[in-house]
Write a structure and sequence with these properties.
Length: 186
């Protein structure tokens, strides 16, 4: 499953960078090895809103009872949005595989190969993937990603007949892009 999720994210980066944007942070919760779906962060403002928006990615994982989560984010984009220092290689697609007990960050650095530039100055680039450093079991995560990992495994008690369904609806209403797999779509 891990290799498939890495492939999905690399494809998302190829497509996004080709259109001039880095994909937004995303969480992929798993329940007993089955992917719940992909939840992309809502539009965020620089600062506290970005920190909260990324941490809130955990909501569906928590209410679904995820036993594993995978998060992916861009080094520079999250640092800029959250007003944090850039730590590690940049540009870089980061992914973390986490359970309640351990997390393992992975880095996928890349060089940007210019494909084209619009008259307005927007660049279309392709990632040229560089060798990935070894994963770091228990390695440091940027604060909003660490919060999302922690909250993913925090039980949520909702007084509602369908806590999962209402959480999906509320997150979509807040602007999160929620794409559930067939097994979890209702």
């Amino acid at each position: 499953m891990w290799d498939a999720l890495v492939g999905v994210m690399k494809d998302a980066y190829i497509a996004g960078l080709g259109e001039g944007t880095v994909p937004r942070p995303v969480i992929m919760p798993l329940v007993r090895g089955e992917l719940v779906g992909l939840i992309w962060v809502r539009p965020i403002k620089v600062g506290q809103d970005a920190l909260v928006g990324i941490a809130e990615l955990a909501n569906i994982a928590s209410v679904a009872g995820a036993d594993e989560v995978v998060l992916a984010w861009g080094t520079h984009d999250v640092a800029t949005a959250c007003e944090l220092p850039v730590v590690g290689p940049a540009p870089c697609m980061n992914m973390v595989l986490a359970t309640r007990d351990v997390h393992v960050p992975h880095q996928f650095p890349y060089d940007e190969q210019l494909l084209s530039r619009t008259p307005e100055g927007w660049a279309s680039v392709a990632p040229d993937w560089r060798p990935a450093p070894a994963p770091q079991r228990g390695g440091e995560l940027v604060p909003p990603v660490q919060a999302a990992v922690d909250f993913s495994f925090t039980a949520v008690e909702l007084n509602h007949p369908d806590p999962f369904g209402v959480t999906v609806v509320l997150m979509e209403e807040d602007g999160y892009s929620v794409r559930l797999t067939e097994a979890f779509a209702r």
